[in-house]
Design a protein that fits this description.
about 140 residues, mainly alpha, Serine Threonine Protein Phosphatase 5, Tetratricopeptide repeat, 8 helices, about 70% helix
Amino acid sequence: MQRLLEMAKVAPKIDCESFYAHAYALYQANSLSQAAEVFQVLCARSPLDQRFWFGLGASCQESGRFAEAERAWAMAALLDPLDPYPHFYAAQCAHSLNQTDDAALALLKAEERTTDLEHPLHEVVLLLKEQWRNRCPALMP
C-alpha cells in the first residue's frame, strides 16, 4: 500500500479511476485511514473532482477526524455550490466538535439547498435543526 501511494505521488499520470475504485473498496472495508490516504493523493492529483473530496470527507468523518473532514467538505461544497450534502456533513462534523455556530450555519446552508420537499435530505435537515435548536442559538427563530 505504501509503495502504491509513493508511486502515485511522483508518477506524472495516475489512473485516477483505478485509484478511486481502490480507495472506495478500502472505505467499504472500513480501512478508513488507508482510504483517506488514497483519497488525499487523488485530491492532490485531481482537485476539481468532487468525488475525491467526498471520499476524503467521508473517510475522515467516519474515523472521527472531524476537523480534517470539515476541510474536505468545504472543498466539495466549493466544487458544486448547489449540492446540499457537503454542507450537511460539515454541519455534523462541526456539531461533533462543539462548534455550534458553524454547525448551525452549515445546516442552514444545507436547508437552503433542499427546499424541494422530495429531496432525500429535506426531512433529515429539518429534524436535525429541531434537535440542535437548544444547543445552537443561530437556529432559534
